[in-house]
Amino acid sequence: MDLQDAHGWLVELLDEVSLQFHKVPGSSIFLRYVKSSYQNDPIRSAVELFLFLFAVRYLLSPKYSTSKDRHVKLTEEEIDEIVDEWVPEPLVAPQTSFEEAENEKRPVIVGPTGPKSKLLSGRVVTNVASYNFYNLNGNESLKEKAVQTLRTYGVGPCGPPGFYGTQDVHMKTEADIAAHLGTSACIVYAQAFSTISSVIPAFSKRGDIIVADKAVNFAIRKGMQISRSSIRWYEHNDMEDLQKVLASVVKEQAKKPLTRRFIITEGLFENTGDMVDLVKIIELKHRYKFRLILDETWSFGVLGKKGVGVTEYQGVNVREVDMLVGSLAGPICSGGGFCAGSAEIVEHQRLSASAYTFSAALPAMLATTASEVLAMLESNPEMLTQVRENIKTMWAQLDPRSEWIHCTSSVENPIMILVLKPEVVASRKLNNSEQEQLLQEMVDEALANSVMMTRLKSMPRGINVTAKEAGWELQPALKVCITSGLTRKETERTGTVIRHAVTKVMKARR
What we know:
Helices cover 49% and strands 12% of the residues. The chain has helices spanning 3-22, 27-40, 42-60, 76-85, 97-105, 140-153, 161-165, 168-181, 193-203, 218-227, 239-252, 278-288, 310-313, 343-352, 354-357, 364-379, 382-398, 422-428, 432-448, 467-470, 488-508, and strands spanning 109-110, 116-119, 124-127, 185-189, 209-213, 230-234, 261-266, 291-295, 323-327, 337-341, 405-407, 415-420, 451-452, 454-455, 478-481. Helix 11 runs parallel beside helix 12 (278-288).
């Protein structure tokens, strides 16, 4: 076949293809579209042709299995050898000899907890180790109200708030807390610890910035860890250092995309007992354009004329705080926690806070108890006065009169954090472990004289975590909780027993 014959055959073939194509319904419309498209936008035609050819190639490509076993096949002997060599990492560090000895001597309370508690041994001791500040555990009207609620609603809703767990008592408690604080809205969580650790990651995400006090409690630290945000620390309660950190963050982020920025601190610090300078923090928050998350776990129900918290005590408008988080399980003697703020802040959490979305709602009797206690604080603020008088009495027996310890707590805080004086630690060259040992001996000596107190406990350092990686570590301390369930004389005697226990242990270890 010469070139002329090949050309003739090709022309006949194209004519036949064209004839058959025109017999296809809609072929004329397709040809008009291609001609107009090529004339108006040839690049688009080229792209469409490429996509068409790609689709044809994809459909005609050979199939392959995604379930092919690409793993290395091991013999039974190799599997047994690997299993024998594997050693699981422990979930927690093994107990030290000090912890084992402490557990063996730990007192066990029989019956209800109160200012006077009965131990398993049969002894009755003065209890300054529980958060029963207003002796609410023995309040008969609260017990009666809780029993009535239990009979009406049952033990618990057994469902998350967003599904069928919310009951009318929960809505009333949220409204009562918001009214007590003076905020627009409030949301109630079922667990106190998980409240702040859920609020933080609900708003702060990866790439956002958190500036936090080095002494914040463990629940806050877990919330910041879950959020995966960038963390910047400032020295405990040091407003000058906070200002430097905020200015540094603003300078670093000046030419970067806008991110959310938060300051996180506590009202009364769980680990040190002192109070935040909220007025100064509000000033810095506005100056550097940060949001503020304030944890009032230990100041709500304690500070202010009616127990509103640090905002009332320091005369700060509560609306200046973006997110105000608190506990209903401490001074309120109920259960659960809350976050108060604007309506937008609250509604966002109902779908974004994991502890609210995925946990069963707060039992109705605990919600009712919280509302009743708030009503008591509103109508009977004298209950706070009696606790404050006992705080002064205990301070008079311990801090100025002991040559060994001093109190780091605020004078309004019913939880007294007692640490060894710096000069005592320095002169005896005591490390943290040795301080813990001395303090535990003081606890045991006080218990021998019918006063039950405790030490400040913190989460243990992780396995193989160095001191530098752990960051700020609290100083070992005694914890004494003041209660209005004791008279002034009983409080004086309790303080004297504690002071004498401290003196006896320290003199014996010269």
